[in-house]
Design brief:
Layout lengths: L3 E3 L2 E4 L6 E4 L2 E4 L2 E4 L4 H4 L12 E7 L4 E7 L3 E7 L2 E7 L10 E6 L3 E5 L3 E7 L3 E7 L9 E3 L25 H4 L4 H8 L3
Antiparallel strand pairs: 1-4, 2-3, 3-11, 4-5, 6-13, 7-12, 7-14, 8-11, 8-13, 9-10, 9-12
Pfam families: dTDP_sugar_isom
InterPro entries: RmlC-like, RmlC-like_jellyroll, RmlC_Cupin_sf
Protein name: dTDP-4-dehydrorhamnose 3,5-epimerase
């Protein structure tokens, strides 16, 4: 039986604090074991403010559907358990040197993205997908944060599968009616 081990790697991105992570994976003739989280390894690349995950969600999303862009008052570690997504991230932290920067990542099993608080997270399922969120804060209705319309042309996000704004199977009304980046800047008083 042959064994192949992929080591843990974490890379910086275009957005300050956003990390693209390749998990440690061990593959043999039986299949693959992926480390979703190991505190001793992740503590070296995540901010000291992350003291533990308070909530973990798993969503099942159909091919072509878009979720987000959401930036609640929490940091997130996101990945897929099954399937693949086109992930999109926008820095909405007014005091960040990368404010307004967009980063996209193709996420498959074994690829994770650490999303700092204040960075909007969204994705489009490229096939039927199970998407995992690790949160450092429990979600609550009305919690502070930002949201952006994922179809805002000024963001320049090229969703791989065309999105029909009137199709609720592809995008929620809440997401399609979220502010544009320009509207967010007006709300924040940024020119």
């Amino acid at each position: 039986m042959s064994l192949h081990v992929e080591p843990f790697r974490a890379n910086s991105s275009n957005i300050e604090g956003l990390k693209i992570i390749s998990t440690k994976m061990a593959t043999d003739d039986r299949g693959t074991v992926r480390e979703l989280f190991r505190d001793s390894v992740y503590s070296e690349v995540l901010p000291e403010t992350i003291t533990g995950w308070k909530q973990i969600n798993l969503t099942r999303t159909r091919k072509g559907a878009v979720r987000g862009l959401h930036g609640e008052a929490m940091s997130k570690l996101v990945t897929v358990a099954y399937g693949s997504v086109f992930g999109a991230y926008v820095d909405t932290r007014p005091d960040s040197r990368t404010f307004g920067v967009v980063q996209t990542v193709h996420i498959t099993p074994g690829i994770q993205v650490f999303v700092p608080q204040g960075v909007c997270n969204g994705f489009q399922a490229l096939e039927d997908t199970e998407y995992l969120y690790f949160f450092d804060n429990e979600w609550a209705p009305g919690m502070p944060g930002t949201a952006l319309c994922p179809l805002d042309p000024e963001l320049g996000i090229r969703w791989p599968i065309p999105v029909d704004i009137n199709n609720p199977d592809q995008i929620s009304q809440k997401d399609s009616k979220a502010p544009t980046f320009k509207e967010l800047c007006e709300i924040l008083g940024i020119n």
